[in-house]
From TrEMBL:
Protein name as annotated: Shikimate kinase
Chief subcellular location: cytoplasm
An example molecular function term from Gene Ontology annotations: shikimate kinase activity
Keyword Magnesium part of the UniProt annotation: yes
Length: 184
């Protein structure tokens, strides 16, 4: 049983998927996303689960998905934007290499437009995003081993900053070599 080499958290638009895929490539490991796991297991879109069963039920499914991914995925793992709201999920993250990708509202709007079908941002997305982040920022920070501000960085630069913050480089500067040494 090997837990992920990096766990990415952060709000929608922080770059979890983009940076996660880049990092996985740099480290020569797999990439996984618990939102995708939930959709695959439930066989329905997340928005539908939110509407039909409500957020508390979704957070339970998410806790299970996070537990399973932490137990069975040695690569890079991204969590859903609100996963850290659940006490049990936060407990599961204790001691792991969790990285909070931080982003300010203006950049999040530029990146995702905030017009995608996001259940928690359905009405007045800018105001909701701001309020949501006021509530969540302390929780993201609480579980994070490293916080990376993404606003002024390209996805490649964010990936590099993560490798540095988690010391995933060998003396030769190769993240793959450092990761292999750690696994040995
Ligand atoms: N550092 C960055 N600079 C500029 N654009 C970025 C950066 N990171 C991601 N993006 C762009 O922002 C958009 C959203 O990124 P991405 O889907 O990776 O975010 P996410 O955190 O996975 O969001 P979600 O919670 O919706 O899954 C994409 O179009 C991506 O190319
Ligand atoms: O920020 C959130 O609460 C969410 C983010 C997405 O990743 C999904 O997990 C879902 O839409 C909820
Ligand atoms: Mg994503």
């Amino acid at each position: 049983m090997t837990s992920p080499v990096v766990v990415l958290i952060g709000p929608p638009g922080a770059g979890k998927s983009t940076v996660g895929a880049l990092l996985a490539e740099r480290l020569d490991v797999g990439y996984r996303d618990t939102d995708a796991d939930i959709v695959a297991t439930a066989g329905r879109p997340i928005a539908e689960i939110f509407i039909d069963e409500g957020e508390p039920y979704f957070r339970e499914l998410e806790r299970t998905a996070v537990r399973e991914a932490l137990e069975g995925h040695p690569g890079v793992l991204s969590l859903g934007g609100g996963a850290i709201l659940d006490d049990g999920t936060r407990t599961l993250l204790t001691g792991l290499p969790v990285v909070f990708l931080d982003v300010q509202l203006a950049d999040a709007v530029k990146r995702v437009g905030l017009d995608a079908p996001r259940p928690l941002l359905a009405v007045n997305p800018r105001k909701q995003w701001r309020e949501l982040m006021e509530h969540r920022r302390p929780l993201y920070t609480e579980v994070a081993r490293a916080v990376i501000e993404t606003g002024e960085r390209t996805p490649e630069q964010v990936a590099e900053a993560i490798l540095d913050a988690l010391e995933l480089r060998s003396a030769a500067g190769s993240p793959r070599a450092a990761h292999r040494e750690e696994q040995a």
